[in-house]
Amino acid sequence: MYDVLIIGAGFAGLTLAYQLRKKSSDLRIAIVHDSSFPLDDISDKVGESFNEIGAVYFDQMLGLKEFMKERYPRKLGMRFFKINESSYQEMGYNNFTPNHAFHFERGKLENDLFDLVKDKVDFYLNHKYLDFETVDGEKHVHVLDRNDKSSRTLKAHWLVDAAGLKKLLARKFDLTHRLPLNHSSVWFRVGGGVNVDDFLPLTSDNPFTTENRSWSSIHLEGVGYWVWILRLSENVTSVGIIFDENMYEFQDLATWEKTKLWLRDNVRVLMDYLDEEQFPIMDFRILRRFATQSDYWVSDERWALVGDAYGIWDPYYSNGFDLIGMQNTILTELILAERAGQEIHQRIQGANRFISDVMRGFAATFTDFYSRKDRWYYICSKYNVDMAVYFPILATIVHNSLESMFVDEDPVFRDRVLFYLEEGGGIYFQLIHLLASDEFKNNGVDGYDYMPLNADTYHAFVPEMDIPYHEKERVFPILEKNCNLLWCVFHYLKSGRNYMDFIKNGAYFAITEQTDPERYRDNPDQLEADLFHSA
Ligand SMILES: Cc1cc2nc3c(=O)[nH]c(=O)nc-3n(C[C@H](O)[C@H](O)[C@H](O)COP(=O)(O)OP(=O)(O)OC[C@H]3O[C@@H](n4cnc5c(N)ncnc54)[C@H](O)[C@@H]3O)c2cc1C
């Protein structure tokens, strides 16, 4: 009888096993996985970049930052380009953000994670999960040994579906539904280091530095689509397209030959560059209409859905591993609390509320987003608005409060954190609404062709990391200030001013350094007069 049986040794399953074992040496853990290890470094999967929460998950929760630093290239934040007839516009970072985010060959990372856990949990490799039923409170899990086609039954208290897009348990319980996004993807890996400097060369008025530009998560923006370029190593680059099927025919990208033509029509500079370099094309993959979500992810019946088995909106910000990090961290606390004899019913409700709040945020982020990307100022504003809730609210909570919310039964603390998550979400919804309005569309602001972002802004948004449990209340003044910060952004944008000036002039820092920041909240004139000179 296992305490926890995980289906699927992908990213979510392997990290969950590692995290559980790190926190408890006597938990009986097994993973049922339908194939074997090692994988090829370039696997058939997608998801090759962390965002900040994923990065902090690897550092703070898993303790694997140093391990990752030795093995994978560090990501220089996100970098956005809009390519015009004979010029381009660019927004990105010159310096690394304080956390260590990475790009990685997915197969190599899963091989590494497997090596880290293989002697610490029981593996049933080449075993396929078939079904389960509950007998006297135990889960009887039926699996098929793919080697000799025999079947066997494993017993477990908790059952976790980490088997990805197959959504084994969500389908069994009829919980999964398609989201109102018609986004699909094609991607390929090339055997060479794609260097943006070669096809989007720096101009004399461009403030970006050369040597690291290519190590960002590159977004080439278009209406109804974007192209990612991720340097996975010196010699391998991942290139992919996410496109809205309401605007582009899937058939026009259904094969590698067609995708080449599509790229030639839509992103000619990239295709010309790839042709010229003659990099070998290592693979070509397709995933259609991937946006799905389940009604909830953790059940009182002691099963849970993590990662793609639960849901995905859109990979524009590499949020897949953020979601996995949050779910694994919460689930680890729930499993350990129950094992320690605690009642966890209310915490399960809190866990479902937390993740569904996060998914509501993603819904606002991505609904009707791609069709609006015709204007550079919109693209810049949207990214900065999204980050102005992601860092100050979500990342602040995840880095400081997520474990504390679930480690023991403190409904007052948990509800108060959820209050701020929802309060921040509420302001964010208003911001998104504003960005989508005619008022914003027709405000006549152009922004800047080259928009450098300050990586240190992270410290303004997240001034503390890893607040200890016994001081957990310290997060509330930060969240209060950060909600105020969001209101300042809202009123600044609403007044029709150039939001990029707000950012360039260091207003985020200046506001958070104020003892009485509320007075700037709906007073952009005052904000400019008092704070802009402090950049
Ligand atoms: C186009 C695209 C790009 C993306 N890019 C990013 C990105 O850059 N960054 C990011 O954070 N996220 C990204 N995501 C999201 C990311 O793909 C997911 O977060 C991540 O891959 C999910 O991992 P997982 O462990 O849930 O599933 P998987 O990695 O698919 O693992 C599931 C495992 O379960 C096994 N399995 C399946 N069925 C069974 C069975 N019956 N029995 C036993 N085992 C089984 C499979 O072999 C598999 O290895 C992207 C998503 C898309 C669609």
Shape: globular
CATH-defined topology of the largest domain: FAD/NAD(P)-binding domain
Q: Whole-number radius of gyration?
A: 23 Å
**Counting H and I runs of at least 4 residues, what is the number of helices?**
19
Q: Which regions have little confidence, pLDDT < 50, spanning 5+ residues? A: none
The name of the CATH architecture of the largest domain is 3-Layer(bba) Sandwich
Secondary-structure-derived class: alpha/beta
In the CATH hierarchy, what is the superfamily of the largest domain? FAD/NAD(P)-binding domain
Strand content: 15-25%
Bound molecules: flavin-adenine dinucleotide
Distance between the termini: 60 Å
The number of E-state strands comes to: 18
- For the largest beta sheet, what order do the strands appear in spatially? 14-10-13-12-11-3-4-18
Counting structural domains, the number is 3
Protein name: Halogenase
Organism: Parasaccharibacter apium
InterPro entries: FAD-bd (IPR002938), FAD/NAD-bd_sf (IPR036188), Flavin-dep_Halogenase_NPB (IPR050816)
GO molecular function, one term: FAD binding
